């Protein structure tokens, strides 16, 4: 099943006299339950694309549809509802509230959505069942990022969008975080898109989508992962 359908997506940022063409015509389908990685050099348009898929930003041209919601013609309040109901975000920085425990940081989100997991379930999925009553300052960077993943998945989003979730972590810790995302994807069936430079993702992803200069340069389907024969 197709979750996202993007056609001819363009994004232009007007910077005074200069137009920055961040996306130059992106056609992309995202399939339900897949874990895809967006790869490409800095400035190629990865974050712009992710933000448009997540309803944090709008395209300048083209169309992007999530199931039966046309995000390219949605109002600001439609986009807010879309984000709240359907999308979990993970960023490079964890944005945890320092005065709340891991459990409480996750509970903030589960209190405002319709069909949440419990904070305990979400934290167990990222292997933090033993850290639930710790405060952010008592947790390592990788653990804090896993709390932020638990917070994102606890609302049971259909889509999980991750923008450099391992960007502030050393590569070994980054692998643990990516494995937590993979486990969530496999357990919950959450359609997941990850921007990362961590090479290990190539083995975990269903597809590696390469972006170059605002366009999709290449899509590699990871057949070895799918078909062990
Ligand atoms: P990536 O995530 O691949 O590093 P981005 O999507 O962040 O790329 O950026 C693509 C291009 O758009 C870059 O040239 C960047 O400088 C520009 N850009 C991104 N966001 C903005 C913004 N808010 N205002 C102006 N230019 C932007
Ligand atoms: P709220 O429900 O608190 O009003 P929003 O509807 O603005 O939140 O946003 C929904 C989701 O999008 C939240 O998970 C929030 O973390 C994320 N989000 C919104 N705006 C931004 C932003 N500028 N940068 C990063 N994440 C954002």
Automatic annotation (TrEMBL):
Transport found in the keyword field: yes
GO molecular function terms listed in the Swiss-Prot or TrEMBL record: ATP binding; ATP hydrolysis activity; transmembrane transporter activity
Signal peptide boundaries: none
Keywords associated with the record: ATP-binding, Nucleotide-binding, Transport
InterPro entries: AAA+_ATPase (IPR003593), ABC_transporter-like_ATP-bd (IPR003439), ABC_transporter-like_CS (IPR017871), MacB-like_ATP-bd (IPR017911), P-loop_NTPase (IPR027417)
A GO-annotated cellular component: membrane protein complex
Family: Belongs to the ABC transporter superfamily. Macrolide exporter (TC 3.A.1.122) family.
Protein name, as recorded: ABC transporter
């Amino acid at each position: 099943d197709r979750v996202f359908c993007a056609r001819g997506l363009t994004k232009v940022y007007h910077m005074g006299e200069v137009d920055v063409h961040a996306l130059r015509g992106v056609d992309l389908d995202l399939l339900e339950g897949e874990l895809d990685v967006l790869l490409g050099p800095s400035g190629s348009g990865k974050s712009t694309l992710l933000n448009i898929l997540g309803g944090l930003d709008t395209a300048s041209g083209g169309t992007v549809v999530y199931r039966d919601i046309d995000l390219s013609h949605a109002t600001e309040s439609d986009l807010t509802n879309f984000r709240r109901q359907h999308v979990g975000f993970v960023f490079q920085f964890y944005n945890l509230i320092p005065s709340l425990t891991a459990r409480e940081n996750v509970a903030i989100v589960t209190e405002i959505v319709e069909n949440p997991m419990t904070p305990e379930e979400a934290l167990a999925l990222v292997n933090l069942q033993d850290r639930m009553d710790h405060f952010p300052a008592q947790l390592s960077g990788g653990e804090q990022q896993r709390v932020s993943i638990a917070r994102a998945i606890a609302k049971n989003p259909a889509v999980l969008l991750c923008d450099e979730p391992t960007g502030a972590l050393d590569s070994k810790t980054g692998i643990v975080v990516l494995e937590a995302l993979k486990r969530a994807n496999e357990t919950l069936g959450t359609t997941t898109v990850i921007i990362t430079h961590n090479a290990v993702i190539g083995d975990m992803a269903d597809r590696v989508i390469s972006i170059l200069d605002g366009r999709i340069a290449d899509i590699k389907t990871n057949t070895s992962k799918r078909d062990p024969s």
